[in-house]
């Protein structure tokens, strides 16, 4: 079965979209095709993949979720838009500001199940799906992604935002599983994100708390280091794998290890 990886935290600024883009770059390095789905109306993931607002495709994630599929599978392929030339092999289901309207969509048929049905058959063998979720507590967009995903990764900065974002994300994931909406959804773990070098009292305290509270779910060995190069590649809308040097290698290695933990084979 193709993996569909959701990247989720209920706090912004914890490196969620950066992780989604990093996983996309790592998957392409493995020569896997990627379906990149952006469910955040801010469109950060979409923009990093080289699709700007004035270049938005005619058919977006908003349109896909507004459709009543009536049992038809694979409709996501109609929303695929190629990423920029810097991201070959990546098809984007783009976000737009109007996607926020789906949160108040009073539809008769469950909107939350539409993405899973739409992706069925659209992600081919040898491909992986990566979904960037909005940083909010539940809601239809978050639930749609969690129902469609096979795995979810929670990035957490080692500060109070990271701690709260991880705690609340796990509560929402538990609800989705307990309600039977996606009982097989696997939490890969909580990944320390944008981790500064050296020691600090807060970093050590939050890391210790996460380890004590969540045990094996806290993946300290998969920490993503903080390097300014990551912001440079984001601004340039190019994958981290296109950069050179020790910082690029450290980030690439971190994303690659996380991809493996999510069950994506070489």
Look at the structure and name the CATH superfamily.
Answer: P-loop containing nucleotide triphosphate hydrolases
Return the CATH class: Alpha Beta
- In CATH, the architecture is 3-Layer(aba) Sandwich
Question: Which range does the strand content fall in?
Answer: 5-15%
Q: Which sequence of strands runs across the widest sheet?
A: 3-4-2-5-1-6-7
Radius of gyration, in Å, reads: 17 Å
- Major beta sheet summary: 7 strands, mixed
CATH fold description: Rossmann fold
Number of strands: 7
Low-confidence stretches: none
- SS-based class: alpha/beta
Protein name: ParA family protein
Organism: Streptomyces kaniharaensis
Domain AAA: 3-186
InterPro entries: AAA_dom (IPR025669), DNA_Partitioning_ATPase (IPR050678), P-loop_NTPase (IPR027417)
Summed up:
37% of the residues lie in helices and 13% in strands.
What do these coordinates show?
This is ParA family protein. With 266 residues, the protein is of the alpha/beta class. It has one domain: 3-Layer(aba) Sandwich (Rossmann fold). The protein has helices at 16-29, 44-48, 61-66, 114-119, 139-148, 160-178, 201-214, 228-236, 246-261; strands spanning 4-7, 33-38, 81-82, 90-93, 127-132, 151-156, 186-192. α1 packs across α9 (246-261). It starts with a strand and ends in a 5-residue tail after the last helix.
Secondary-structure blueprint of this entry?
Elements: E1 4-7, H1 16-29, E2 33-38, H2 44-48, H3 61-66, E3 81-82, E4 90-93, H4 114-119, E5 127-132, H5 139-148, E6 151-156, H6 160-178, E7 186-192, H7 201-214, H8 228-236, H9 246-261
Parallel strand pairs: 1-5, 1-6, 2-4, 2-5, 6-7
Antiparallel strand pairs: 3-4
Helix pairs in contact: 1-9
């Amino acid at each position: 079965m193709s993996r569909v990886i959701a990247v989720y935290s209920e706090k912004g600024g914890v490196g969620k979209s950066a992780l989604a883009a990093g996983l996309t770059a790592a998957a392409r390095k493995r020569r896997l095709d990627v379906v990149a789905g952006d469910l955040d109306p801010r469109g950060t993931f979409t923009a990093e993949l080289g699709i700007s607002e004035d270049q938005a495709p005619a058919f977006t994630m908003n349109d896909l979720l507004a459709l009543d599929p009536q049992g038809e599978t694979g409709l996501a392929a109609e929303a695929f838009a190629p990423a920029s030339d810097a991201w070959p092999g990546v098809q984007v289901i783009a976000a737009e500001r109007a996607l926020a309207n789906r949160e108040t969509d009073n539809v008769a048929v469950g909107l939350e199940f539409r993405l899973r049905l739409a992706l069925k058959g659209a992600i081919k063998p040898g491909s992986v799906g990566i979904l960037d979720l909005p940083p909010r507590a539940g809601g239809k967009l978050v639930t749609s992604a969690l129902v469609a995903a096979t795995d979810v990764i929670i990035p957490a900065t080692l500060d109070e935002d990271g701690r709260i974002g991880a705690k609340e994300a796990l509560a929402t994931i538990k609800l989705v599983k307990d309600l039977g909406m996606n009982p097989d959804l696997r939490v890969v773990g909580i990944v320390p994100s944008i981790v500064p070098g050296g020691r600090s009292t807060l970093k050590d305290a939050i890391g210790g708390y996460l380890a004590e509270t969540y045990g094996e779910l806290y993946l300290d060995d998969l920490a993503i280091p903080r390097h300014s190069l990551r912001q440079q590649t984001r601004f340039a809308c190019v994958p981290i794998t296109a950069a050179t040097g020790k910082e690029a290698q450290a980030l690439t290695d971190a994303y690659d290890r996380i991809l493996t933990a999510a069950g994506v084979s070489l």
